[in-house]
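$ ./design --mode recover --in tokens.txt
reading tokens...
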């Protein structure tokens, strides 16, 4: 069986009118997990740090209020189960990268640092960097103080105000960034590489920072072997950009012994289902029978093709479509020499792929796992110049997709 490369750029997703006869959906059950000689690793579809149009991220139907992921048990509200037609249920819990294990279970959050959730509609306001003491008047948060007068009152002569205007430190991440995420899944010795392109606007005060705008612009999954799969989800990119994001994610960048210790909060991102409800890992992801309503969370048709969740068009050794509503978490903890322009950090991540149903061979519900070689999972962040990736959100994302191979060549490669 011959190898194949990247999916053709103009590979289109067939749109199905919501009022027409739906495709041959099939339940993604464990009965076919090992049916045949080939197990196809479908979609990795992760957005570890990517470009969701966060400035105006919205909440879909079934909004239940902001959820701090990892904050405790599930809500008291029990989702209503709307009929999904004749669709079959696929309740597996994937290990990673688009493949699910059977029988279904509710995923437990893996231990890590503080957690957050995508889909925040109230990003924190950015503060000004702190000032160092000097002989000039301090600039307080409420205005300019004379000889050290700050917002909180009059300090001794030469003291600084509550916040100041000194130049940022050597580990200050404040500014605009392209973040290219690179991670790999495996099945039967074959690998699939996923790239996610994200846009960050970061405001740092002291050692702590907040992503004041975080957008996921794109993601692609490319099969590298004869039995691997390439998956196209571009029909959902616009919806992902507007409905889910990384706005509000926090972290720190601290100068330690001549280096910068970088920490990104553990963050849950969901696609193809109600946010922020499903960003809480205590809430089980929806099945094909749980379509969102005005009063209950569930899957949502984010690419407008009449199918549940997000449609992945699979090509390669096996072809077909998968209908998914995945939940991904990512976190970063690393030391880098500096953050002046470009730096690379290892990525910790996992995903519940949640293949709700599929159209085609049962092999589309096969299993894949996160690659055991942790060096294959990483992020490159490139500081953007003032004239790079400007304009509205659509223009910013288009620019970043074009710039990624040049500004972040390692992460954008295979």
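writing sequence...
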């Amino acid at each position: 069986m011959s190898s194949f490369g990247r999916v053709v750029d103009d590979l289109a997703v067939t749109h199905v009118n919501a009022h027409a006869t739906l495709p041959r959906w099939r339940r993604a059950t464990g009965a076919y997990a090992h049916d045949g000689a080939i197990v196809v690793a479908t979609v990795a579809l992760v957005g570890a740090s990517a470009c969701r149009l966060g400035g105006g991220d919205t909440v879909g139907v079934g909004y239940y209020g902001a959820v701090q992921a990892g904050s405790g048990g599930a809500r008291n509200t029990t989702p209503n189960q709307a009929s999904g037609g004749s669709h079959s249920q696929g309740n597996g819990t994937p290990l990673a990268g688009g493949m699910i294990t059977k029988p279904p279970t509710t995923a437990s959050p893996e231990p890590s640092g503080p957690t957050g959730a995508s889909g925040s509609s109230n990003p924190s306001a950015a503060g000004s960097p702190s000032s160092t003491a000097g002989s000039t008047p301090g600039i307080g948060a409420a205005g300019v103080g004379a000889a050290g007068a700050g917002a909180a009152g009059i300090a001794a002569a030469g003291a600084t105000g509550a916040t100041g205007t000194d130049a940022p430190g050597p580990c200050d991440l404040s500014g605009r960034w392209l973040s290219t995420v690179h991670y790999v899944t495996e099945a039967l010795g074959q690998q699939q590489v996923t790239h996610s392109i994200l846009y960050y606007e970061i405001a740092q005060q002291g050692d702590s920072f907040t992503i004041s705008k975080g957008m996921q612009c794109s993601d692609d999954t490319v099969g590298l072997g004869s039995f691997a799969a390439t998956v196209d989800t571009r029909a959902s990119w616009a919806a992902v950009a507007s409905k889910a994001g990384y706005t509000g994610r926090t972290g720190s960048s601290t100068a330690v012994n001549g280096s910068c210790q970088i920490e990104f909060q553990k963050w849950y991102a969901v696609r193809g289902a109600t946010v922020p409800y499903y960003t809480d890992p205590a809430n089980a992801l929806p099945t094909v029978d749980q379509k969102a309503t005005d009063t209950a969370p569930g899957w949502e048709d984010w690419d407008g093709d009449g199918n549940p969740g997000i449609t992945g068009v699979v090509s390669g050794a096996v072809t077909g479509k998968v209908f998914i509503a995945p939940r991904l978490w990512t976190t970063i903890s690393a030391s880098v020499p500096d953050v002046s322009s470009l730096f690379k950090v290892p990525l910790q991540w996992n995903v519940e792929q949640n293949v709700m149903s599929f159209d085609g061979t049962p092999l589309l519900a096969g299993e894949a796992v996160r690659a055991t070689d942790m060096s294959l999972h990483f992020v490159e962040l490139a500081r953007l110049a003032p004239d790079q990736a400007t304009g509205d959100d659509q223009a910013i994302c288009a620019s970043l997709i074009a710039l990624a191979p040049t500004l972040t060549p390692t992460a954008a490669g295979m």
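exit 0
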